[in-house]
Protein backbone atom coordinates (compact mmCIF):
# COMPACT_ATOMS: atom_id res chain seq x y z
CA UNK A 1 0.00 0.00 0.00
CA UNK A 2 1.18 3.54 -0.75
CA UNK A 3 1.09 6.16 2.00
CA UNK A 4 1.13 9.95 1.36
CA UNK A 5 4.31 10.61 3.36
CA UNK A 6 6.28 8.23 1.12
CA UNK A 7 6.10 10.84 -1.64
CA UNK A 8 7.11 13.81 0.53
CA UNK A 9 10.82 14.58 0.16
CA UNK A 10 13.04 17.23 1.77
CA UNK A 11 14.51 18.62 -1.46
CA UNK A 12 11.89 18.34 -4.19
CA UNK A 13 11.27 15.52 -6.64
CA UNK A 14 14.80 14.82 -7.87
CA UNK A 15 16.19 11.54 -6.56
CA UNK A 16 14.72 8.94 -4.20
CA UNK A 17 13.34 9.80 -0.78
CA UNK A 18 15.89 7.59 0.97
CA UNK A 19 18.81 9.45 -0.67
CA UNK A 20 17.30 12.86 0.12
CA UNK A 21 16.62 11.90 3.77
CA UNK A 22 20.22 10.64 4.10
CA UNK A 23 21.54 13.93 2.69
CA UNK A 24 19.26 15.98 4.95
CA UNK A 25 20.28 14.17 8.15
CA UNK A 26 23.98 14.26 7.24
CA UNK A 27 23.57 18.03 6.86
CA UNK A 28 21.65 18.76 10.09
CA UNK A 29 23.45 16.15 12.28
CA UNK A 30 25.60 18.70 14.22
CA UNK A 31 22.54 20.70 15.35
CA UNK A 32 19.95 17.90 15.45
CA UNK A 33 19.89 17.35 19.24
CA UNK A 34 19.59 21.06 20.00
CA UNK A 35 16.76 21.36 17.47
CA UNK A 36 14.92 18.29 18.73
CA UNK A 37 14.82 19.46 22.33
CA UNK A 38 14.01 23.06 21.34
CA UNK A 39 11.17 22.17 18.99
CA UNK A 40 9.58 19.70 21.43
CA UNK A 41 10.18 22.00 24.44
CA UNK A 42 12.09 19.08 25.99
CA UNK A 43 9.00 16.84 26.18
CA UNK A 44 10.65 14.33 23.82
CA UNK A 45 12.68 13.00 26.77
CA UNK A 46 9.55 11.92 28.67
CA UNK A 47 8.12 10.32 25.50
CA UNK A 48 11.28 8.23 25.13
CA UNK A 49 11.08 7.08 28.74
CA UNK A 50 7.44 6.01 28.32
CA UNK A 51 8.34 4.00 25.22
CA UNK A 52 11.26 2.27 26.93
CA UNK A 53 9.20 1.46 30.02
CA UNK A 54 6.78 -0.58 27.89
CA UNK A 55 9.65 -3.04 27.29
CA UNK A 56 10.73 -3.33 30.93
CA UNK A 57 8.55 -6.42 31.77
CA UNK A 58 10.10 -8.40 28.88
CA UNK A 59 13.81 -7.90 29.70
CA UNK A 60 15.01 -7.87 26.06
CA UNK A 61 18.65 -8.96 25.71
CA UNK A 62 19.27 -8.33 22.00
CA UNK A 63 17.84 -5.04 20.76
CA UNK A 64 17.87 -2.99 17.58
CA UNK A 65 17.05 0.71 17.40
CA UNK A 66 16.05 1.56 13.81
CA UNK A 67 16.56 5.11 12.48
CA UNK A 68 18.70 5.58 15.59
CA UNK A 69 19.87 9.08 14.59
CA UNK A 70 22.18 10.59 17.20
CA UNK A 71 21.61 7.69 19.59
CA UNK A 72 19.57 9.30 22.39
CA UNK A 73 16.98 6.53 22.42
CA UNK A 74 19.60 3.78 22.14
CA UNK A 75 21.61 5.15 25.08
CA UNK A 76 18.54 5.57 27.28
CA UNK A 77 17.25 2.09 26.38
CA UNK A 78 20.63 0.56 27.22
CA UNK A 79 20.78 2.30 30.60
CA UNK A 80 17.18 1.54 31.55
CA UNK A 81 16.80 -2.02 30.20
CA UNK A 82 20.38 -3.33 30.52
CA UNK A 83 20.34 -5.55 27.38
CA UNK A 84 23.39 -7.65 26.47
CA UNK A 85 23.70 -5.78 23.18
CA UNK A 86 21.97 -3.01 21.27
CA UNK A 87 22.65 -2.10 17.66
CA UNK A 88 21.55 1.25 16.28
CA UNK A 89 20.88 1.33 12.54
CA UNK A 90 20.45 4.35 10.28
CA UNK A 91 21.12 5.49 6.70
CA UNK A 92 22.95 8.62 7.86
CA UNK A 93 26.60 8.17 8.82
CA UNK A 94 26.64 11.84 9.86
CA UNK A 95 24.02 11.18 12.54
CA UNK A 96 25.64 7.93 13.68
CA UNK A 97 29.03 9.62 14.00
CA UNK A 98 27.44 11.95 16.56
CA UNK A 99 25.88 8.88 18.22
CA UNK A 100 29.19 6.99 18.36
CA UNK A 101 30.85 9.87 20.21
CA UNK A 102 27.96 10.11 22.68
CA UNK A 103 28.13 6.36 23.33
CA UNK A 104 31.90 6.56 23.87
CA UNK A 105 31.47 9.40 26.38
CA UNK A 106 28.71 7.45 28.14
CA UNK A 107 31.02 4.44 28.52
CA UNK A 108 28.63 2.14 26.66
CA UNK A 109 30.71 1.28 23.58
CA UNK A 110 31.00 -2.35 24.74
CA UNK A 111 27.22 -2.80 24.48
CA UNK A 112 26.02 -0.31 21.84
CA UNK A 113 27.20 -0.47 18.24
CA UNK A 114 26.02 1.19 15.03
CA UNK A 115 25.63 0.08 11.43
CA UNK A 116 24.49 1.74 8.24
CA UNK A 117 21.35 -0.15 7.19
CA UNK A 118 18.39 0.41 4.88
CA UNK A 119 15.34 -0.34 7.03
CA UNK A 120 13.53 -1.88 4.03
CA UNK A 121 16.30 -4.46 3.44
CA UNK A 122 18.00 -5.26 6.75
CA UNK A 123 21.09 -7.47 6.62
CA UNK A 124 20.23 -9.39 9.82
CA UNK A 125 18.97 -12.97 9.96
CA UNK A 126 15.40 -13.86 10.87
CA UNK A 127 14.59 -13.91 14.58
CA UNK A 128 17.73 -12.01 15.62
CA UNK A 129 16.25 -9.59 18.18
CA UNK A 130 14.03 -9.60 21.27
CA UNK A 131 12.94 -6.00 20.70
CA UNK A 132 13.02 -3.48 17.86
CA UNK A 133 12.43 0.22 18.46
CA UNK A 134 11.93 3.25 16.22
CA UNK A 135 11.74 6.73 17.74
CA UNK A 136 10.72 9.64 15.48
CA UNK A 137 12.10 8.02 12.34
CA UNK A 138 9.45 5.81 10.80
CA UNK A 139 7.77 8.64 8.89
CA UNK A 140 11.03 8.98 6.92
CA UNK A 141 10.75 5.42 5.54
CA UNK A 142 10.42 5.44 1.77
CA UNK A 143 8.33 2.24 1.91
CA UNK A 144 6.50 1.91 5.23
CA UNK A 145 5.08 -1.59 4.65
CA UNK A 146 8.49 -2.97 3.63
CA UNK A 147 10.11 -1.45 6.71
CA UNK A 148 7.45 -2.92 9.02
CA UNK A 149 7.78 -6.36 7.38
CA UNK A 150 11.57 -6.28 7.79
CA UNK A 151 11.32 -5.35 11.47
CA UNK A 152 8.87 -8.21 11.97
CA UNK A 153 11.19 -10.62 10.14
CA UNK A 154 14.23 -9.90 12.35
CA UNK A 155 12.22 -10.14 15.58
CA UNK A 156 11.98 -13.42 17.46
CA UNK A 157 8.47 -14.87 17.94
CA UNK A 158 7.09 -13.17 21.04
CA UNK A 159 9.42 -10.20 20.48
CA UNK A 160 8.18 -6.64 20.67
CA UNK A 161 8.10 -3.64 18.36
CA UNK A 162 7.91 -0.17 19.92
CA UNK A 163 7.35 2.89 17.73
CA UNK A 164 7.26 6.53 18.80
CA UNK A 165 6.17 9.02 16.17
CA UNK A 166 5.05 12.61 16.06
CA UNK A 167 1.40 13.04 15.12
CA UNK A 168 -1.17 15.77 14.62
CA UNK A 169 -3.70 16.45 17.39
CA UNK A 170 -7.30 16.08 16.22
CA UNK A 171 -9.15 18.09 18.89
CA UNK A 172 -9.73 21.77 19.53
CA UNK A 173 -7.71 23.80 20.53
CA UNK A 174 -4.53 21.69 20.20
CA UNK A 175 -5.29 20.90 16.56
CA UNK A 176 -5.33 24.60 15.64
CA UNK A 177 -2.36 25.50 17.87
CA UNK A 178 -0.26 22.66 16.48
CA UNK A 179 -1.10 23.68 12.92
CA UNK A 180 0.21 27.21 13.56
CA UNK A 181 3.26 25.91 15.42
CA UNK A 182 4.21 23.40 12.73
CA UNK A 183 3.47 25.75 9.84
CA UNK A 184 5.23 28.88 11.12
CA UNK A 185 7.37 28.39 14.24
CA UNK A 186 8.88 24.97 13.50
CA UNK A 187 10.30 25.90 10.05
CA UNK A 188 11.56 29.25 11.40
CA UNK A 189 13.45 27.74 14.37
CA UNK A 190 14.72 24.91 12.17
CA UNK A 191 16.06 27.33 9.58
CA UNK A 192 17.75 29.54 12.20
CA UNK A 193 19.50 26.69 14.04
CA UNK A 194 20.22 24.19 11.26
CA UNK A 195 20.70 26.65 8.36
CA UNK A 196 18.73 24.16 6.25
CA UNK A 197 15.69 25.80 4.66
CA UNK A 198 14.12 22.52 3.57
CA UNK A 199 14.61 20.18 6.52
CA UNK A 200 12.13 21.81 8.88
CA UNK A 201 9.57 22.49 6.20
CA UNK A 202 9.74 18.78 5.35
CA UNK A 203 9.31 17.80 9.03
CA UNK A 204 5.77 19.18 9.60
CA UNK A 205 4.68 18.07 6.12
CA UNK A 206 5.81 14.50 6.81
CA UNK A 207 4.05 14.52 10.21
CA UNK A 208 0.74 15.63 8.67
CA UNK A 209 0.95 13.03 5.88
CA UNK A 210 1.94 10.06 8.06
CA UNK A 211 -0.76 7.43 8.83
CA UNK A 212 -1.91 7.77 12.43
CA UNK A 213 -3.87 5.89 15.06
CA UNK A 214 -6.05 3.12 13.67
CA UNK A 215 -4.57 3.40 10.15
CA UNK A 216 -1.04 2.87 11.46
CA UNK A 217 -2.30 0.13 13.80
CA UNK A 218 -3.71 -1.73 10.77
CA UNK A 219 -0.43 -1.31 8.82
CA UNK A 220 1.53 -2.82 11.73
CA UNK A 221 -0.91 -5.72 12.01
CA UNK A 222 -0.72 -6.38 8.25
CA UNK A 223 3.08 -6.68 8.55
CA UNK A 224 2.70 -9.76 10.76
CA UNK A 225 2.28 -8.35 14.26
CA UNK A 226 -0.43 -9.16 16.78
CA UNK A 227 -1.64 -7.35 19.90
CA UNK A 228 -1.07 -3.93 18.34
CA UNK A 229 -1.89 -1.11 20.73
CA UNK A 230 -1.41 2.64 20.50
CA UNK A 231 -1.59 5.53 22.91
CA UNK A 232 -1.67 9.24 22.13
CA UNK A 233 0.68 11.32 24.30
CA UNK A 234 0.61 15.04 25.17
CA UNK A 235 -2.76 15.88 23.54
CA UNK A 236 -1.91 13.77 20.48
CA UNK A 237 1.37 15.49 19.53
CA UNK A 238 3.08 12.09 19.76
CA UNK A 239 1.76 8.52 19.44
CA UNK A 240 3.24 5.38 20.99
CA UNK A 241 2.65 2.04 19.22
CA UNK A 242 3.46 -1.32 20.84
CA UNK A 243 3.15 -4.65 18.99
CA UNK A 244 4.08 -8.31 19.50
CA UNK A 245 5.31 -10.73 16.83
Can you give a write-up of this model?
By secondary structure, the chain is α/β, with parallel strands linked by helices. It contains 9 helices and 7 strands, in the order H-H-H-E-H-E-H-E-E-H-E-H-H-H-E-E. It is about 45% helix and about 20% strand. The protein is globular. It starts with 16 loop residues before the first helix and ends with a strand. The mean pLDDT is about 95.
Uncertain runs: none
Q: Report mean pLDDT, rounded to a whole number.
A: 94
Give the helix/strand class.
Answer: alpha/beta
Number of strands: 7
- Percent of residues in helices comes to 40-55%
The shape, in one word, is globular
What is this entry, summarized?
By secondary structure, the protein is α/β, with parallel strands linked by helices.
Give a quick set of tags describing it:
single chain, 245 residues, alpha/beta, seven-stranded mixed sheet, 7 strands, 20% strand
Which helices and strands, and how do they pair?
Blueprint: H1 17-28, H2 32-39, H3 44-53, E1 62-66, H4 72-81, E2 85-90, H5 93-106, E3 112-116, E4 129-135, H6 144-154, E5 155-166, H7 174-194, H8 199-209, H9 214-222, E6 226-233, E7 238-244
Parallel strand pairs: 1-2, 1-4, 2-3, 4-5
Antiparallel strand pairs: 5-7, 6-7
Helix pairs in contact: 2-7, 3-4, 7-8
Amino acid sequence: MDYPQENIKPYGNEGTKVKQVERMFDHIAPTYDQLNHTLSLGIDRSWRRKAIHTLRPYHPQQMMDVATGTGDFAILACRELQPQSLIGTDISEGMMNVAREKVRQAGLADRISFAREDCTALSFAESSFDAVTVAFGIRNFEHLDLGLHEMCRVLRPGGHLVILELSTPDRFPMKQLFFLYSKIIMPLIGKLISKDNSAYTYLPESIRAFPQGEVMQKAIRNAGFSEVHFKRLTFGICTLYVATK
